[in-house]
Amino acid sequence: MQTVDVLVIGAGFAGLRALYRFRGLGYKVKVLEASEDVGGVWYHNGYPGARCDVESYDYSYSFSPELEQEWRWSERYATQPEILRYINHVAERFDLRRDIQFNTRMTNATYDEASARWVIETEGGETFDTQFFMMCVGQLSTPKSPNYPGLSDYKGEVIHSGKWPKHEVTYEGKRVAIIGTGSSGMQMTPVIAKYAKHLTVFQRTPNYSIPAANAPVTDEEDAQVKAHYRERRDRAWNSATGLGFMPNKTSALDVTPEEREKAYEAAWNRLGFGFALTYYDILLNKQANDTAADFIRRKIASVVNDPVVREKLLPRNHAFAARRPSVDSGYFQAFNRDNVELADLLESPIVEFTHEGIRTSAKNHVFDMIIFATGFDVFTGSLFKPNIIGRGGITLKQKWSDGPVTHLGVGVSDFPNMFIVVGPGSPSLLSNVMVSTEEQIDWMAAFVEHMKANKQAVFEVQHDAEKEWGHHINERVKETLYLSTDSYYNGAEVKGKPRVFMPYSGGVRGYRRILHKCAAEGYTGFSFAANAAWLEKV
Ligand code: NAP
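Above: the input record for the complex with NAP. Below: its predicted structure, written as tokens.
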């Protein structure tokens, strides 16, 4: 049995950051990673066209000014290989690999009440004993593949976007299917279209997307960002989304249609996700949202030649950004190619897979390769994979059977000394997740330092605090349009999943203030104890 102070699960952006921070404070840290290398989702999502839809300079660590200065991003939105190179660079530069154990999947984590420590077990039969236990497993890390009848009969290659093979995948001369039109499907479509003999995109829900306006980063731009990096970070930390866009105080309904058109046009060509912030109420008011949605539909329509395909691609059944929109590079234009076909699943659903392809209610399709871009079991998928057993033998799955409950998205009652990073209850997927990750981990490190200074060994979330935070999450989301549609924000992506809104919609800046207030007031909502004996009394 190995004994550590902090055991971290996952070696993606969050796990590496946690290792760096806690090791820097003198704690003995170990990271367990199921895969063979660092990178988390950026290791696994190697599909063609994969790139980040947050600008490179903002989707990067802020903890080291030296790292900021020496790393040179080549494009405004970095590709997956470049992000993976960055993660590897960080791992090398800060000598992180020596505390990461690869090819090691945690299967069980059990809180031992007598010692007030966690016992972590792995698939390979190893055991770790740790005081603190941190889940850094991401939110989009458990791929979800539909289980169509006949799937196992299909003889061609089947690939999931979130578990892209490490061997080279070629498309030349092949008939390829992509199922799913979220960010992953939309990103890979124009790239695969260039090489495949024929590409069929199976769409269930038409999705909004904004052009990436990607471009190479010039030396001048790089120097400019690096000369003012702190100010840029400050803007990100103090913005609602962590993307650095400052709140626009104007309502979309308080300007003339001409003014609005001009503002949308400017944002469309320049801002990526920032488009959603052209007016402050786009995500708050349906009428305001309609103005943005209508603009996007007109933009989509303007680049698709075929009138029937065009109509099918227009998102109409949900408010813009109430589900995660995409940022694309030529998705809609790809349907103008002779070798690309749109298969509308609402019109003609999939009946079954056959040995040679897919049969829909309309026709028999023959494919050499089928790609599932069907998303993930979001937020809780990877938290439920291992068996996490808290106080009194309760499992995390049981505890969250009606949906996740947390205090501040940081910890869960009955699971003492367990942290969850950028999971449910935190801004997470509603923010630049890089900003939220660093914010939470630094806060957790200060929290543990506070415990040490006060000679406390155990923390636990108070039940009332957890209830209150859940109430606050629900109150904040009611101000928005997020509840107006099904999405993975509210558990609709997996049949039978509790339908609760999982991330915190109050914004990065607001969340940050709440975390800081909690700390300033002596970590309200948490109980502390010097040893396990107190547990009897709580
Ligand atoms: P996703 O957004 O959940 O999209 C999944 C797609 O598959 C949807 O179009 C969905 O249709 C469809 N689908 C699911 N089950 C299906 C079924 N049984 N039959 C037919 N279609 C089905 O997943 P994703 O595209 O992988 O993206 C997930 C998230 O990862 C993104 O929202 C984003 O947060 C992140 N991401 C980011 C980037 C980036 O930074 N650029 C890139 C990729 C992903 P319905 O809508 O009808 O359910």
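Notes for the reader.
The chain has 15 helices and 20 strands.
Residues 72 and 222 are 7 Å apart (CA to CA).
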